[in-house]
Amino acid sequence: MSRPQRIATLRLQLSARASVAPPGDWLPVLLAGARIGTTSPDVASFLATEDPRCALLDYSLVFDDESFDAAARTALLNELAHRLRDAGLLRGWRNEQLDVQPLDGGPALATIERSACRALGIATHAVHLNGFTADGRLWVAQRAAHKGVDPNMWDNLVGGMVSAGEHELLALERESFEEAGFRLQDHAVVRGGLVREQRPIPEGHMVETVQVFDLVLPPGFAPRNEDGEVQRFELRTVDAVLEAIERDEFTVEAALVTLDGLMRQEMGHE
Asked: At a CB cut-off of 8 Å and minimum separation 6, what does 176 contact?
């Protein structure tokens, strides 16, 4: 099998794993008349019992009516996030606000604590960076053992969430320094494709769009983690990366981001 065929096969396999509907008994989550997520019956029942501003109507979890403004919606959602945390229904707490948008698109209706997004099936937006060398090798990062999600798995050189109201390039600049210790503005990045995921995970239901970026790094570049979320970096050949993906050593999204970049690299070499 040629390398492009191998990459294409892996993309098909991983795309199937990254597109899984929530369980049939999970409930739509509605805010201001728009569907913003999907949640489990346990979470829905807890919130409807805990707060009179939450209701179970027509087999949906409804948070409010359209009389709320964005500030009131944000206050409500974050109060509910605290209640979920105190009840042990959330993993961790990030003190980071993410935009809450309708699942079918549109402007943000509110913001919410990041750790509550999966429990409520709220869509998130992330940026990931493939770091190549001039000879085609790839820098990869191993996630820290203490991370609550996918510890010790392999990841892209840079990856992270886009915070509420943040431009994705600013998010990429922030993550590039925090995770790999370099200033993005000193390099020329190339915008790649979009990776979309929808699948059940232990925290709830993951719905995420990842904007892929590629970067060819200069000779002598050595990444340095600044935020403690990466335990080590490795510079690998393409074949070594593909073998690791086949062994399921990369996170699903990192594998798809890597394959997106490798496909462009292969096309450029034709």
From this structure: 129, 158, 182, 183, 184
